[in-house]
Amino acid sequence: MLTVILTGQFALPYDLSALAWGSYFYVIFIGSLVGMLFWNKGIRIIGPSQAAVFMNLMPLVGIICGIAFLDESFYTSEAVGGALIIAGVYLTTQYRLLAYKLARYLVKRRRQKSLNDC
Fold this sequence. Notes:
This protein is mainly alpha-helical and 118 residues long. The protein has helices spanning 2-6, 18-46, 48-54, 58-70, 76-93, 95-117. The termini are far apart.
């Protein structure tokens, strides 16, 4: 990019239609600014460590949008990858609940075993 600017081959596209300029500003303001505002609001609500986990969903959303809007093919490797992403996000966000249930189960099992030994 720097080479293009320094050699003078860079020029702004002044001959764009109103629709093209509208699309350009839509991407800037709605796609970037509003998206960033919602992202920051979400971080404030659930915290940065939880929000970081959900960034793993971006490739999955990209695959789904590619299939829905661009008529791309869907392969088994993408299905496996999507399942692994969802499983990882689920386990990461629900680890306290899962750990609590597992601990409760193990304590209950240990009590039953100690009662059976007596």
